[in-house]
Design a protein that fits this description.
mainly alpha; globular
Length: 545
Amino acid sequence: MESVLERPDWIVLGIYFLALIGVAVWVVSQKNKNTEDYFLAGRNVGWFVIGASIFASNIGSEHVVGLAGTGFETGTPMAHYELHAWIVLLLGWLFLPFYIRSGAFTMPEFLEKRFDSRSRWFLSIFSLVAYVLTKVSVTIYAGGIVVSELLGIPFWYGAIGVVIFTGIYTVVGGMKAVIYTETLQTVILILGSLVITYLGLKEVGGWGQLHETVTSVSPDHFNMWRPMNDPDFPWTGLLFGGTIVGIWYWCTDQYIVQRVLSAENELQARRGTIFAGYLKILPIFMFFIPGLIAYAMFKSGQISYDSSDQAFPTLVKELLPAGMRGLIAGSLLAALMSSLSSVFNSCSTLFTIDIYKKLKPDTSEKKLVQIGRIATSVVVLSGILWIPFMKTISGELYTYLQSVQAYIAPPIAAVFLLGIFWQKINAQGALVALIGGFSAGLLRLILEINKDSLSGIWFAIADLNFLYFAIFSFLSCTALMIIVSLFTPQQSSKQLNGLTFSTTSDQDKEISLSSWDNRDLVHSVVIIAILILILIYFSPIGIVT
């Protein structure tokens, strides 16, 4: 296997890595004195860095590879997930004040403050396992594809190399290294992806010609709104089921929320989510459209490849001149490393704060930082060991990821949402909902794997669209939580002070109100307006014919 990169590409790629190393060295030189420094970057991060870090953490190689592959294979329906900018706003406007008032380091710790330690233990262990099986494994797999396609390095060697490189600066520098390197990686990622979109559109004759070429073969490729009975992407499932997954991911997942918790104050945190909302609109133009471009070029015989997940790397190889390929390769590696560093740090935080410190509460701050570094190293090793299993993944990577997340998200989203909105939801109700929802998701996953050998009701459950499953699971968990909570003892208002709407003091409300002004409101409205226009544009009343 030969690399598609030439000398100018390697020079550009080398400059990128030198810049990344420079940022990492600068961050590492600033000593981590305690757990707040190591896991939350000292809680003094500004809005620009927070927004860039949220975006970079979200957009990994699985998005670059998977979104383009999904755009090639099925068109724009899954773009609904990339219009979750409004849910990022929900994090800043709705959830953020409660998280900050709680003083929690982690989401499991917040659950303990709101409910009890049982919920904390469940979410801690569940999140760690889920991270290794989804975020770590999928990101490494996607990274292996990128490295092997562009650099001419065997899958294993490339994936392991990038994992180790990312792991080193994450272990040493902690959250500071992660969040500031992600800021640089965001710039590279956006620039690189938009370049391939521009050159791709130029190659196929512009937007109008792209639309004509694609719709002549597949009229639905530009339609985000598929019928309710569509087996893969029903609009009702995408709109409601996707929202449930989005609330879990953007508003309750340690992977994302940890960036907000590192903010200097509530004002900087909220503006960070608004900035991230703007950035979250970009993936449609950065990844989905390249997938459509690849589809048009494939159908016209201009390019060829074996798997839809190879769409984006193939465009890089076929379209870009020497020097530019290095920039794109850097952007793809940036996506990989930003996601990996984020999940490494999140896993380390969960294990150290929610498990180790819980078992040994008298451990010194210095010792906890050391444990955090060891935990990160273990996660890195786990990711490497999982690579052989991820080689078995086939089909559309992004769709695979979203289907697994649809089994995980409903109980957690239900517990956090109702826990904030309704004081009467208690610890017993939350725990039953978490266990019940997790069990249902696990059952669905097992049934789906063995679907071909099933019949009757079991086949119907296995064959149910994963987004509809997410809706039913969320509603079931909500009902279960309400019933159990109403028939078991309630928690005291004193225990819940500041953690629900009804127990928030007037003073706390005034603090939150003073943390935003009209500019924040206007920007939030602009983001929502852009989202609505995109939804209309890619619909039967827009350009779809």
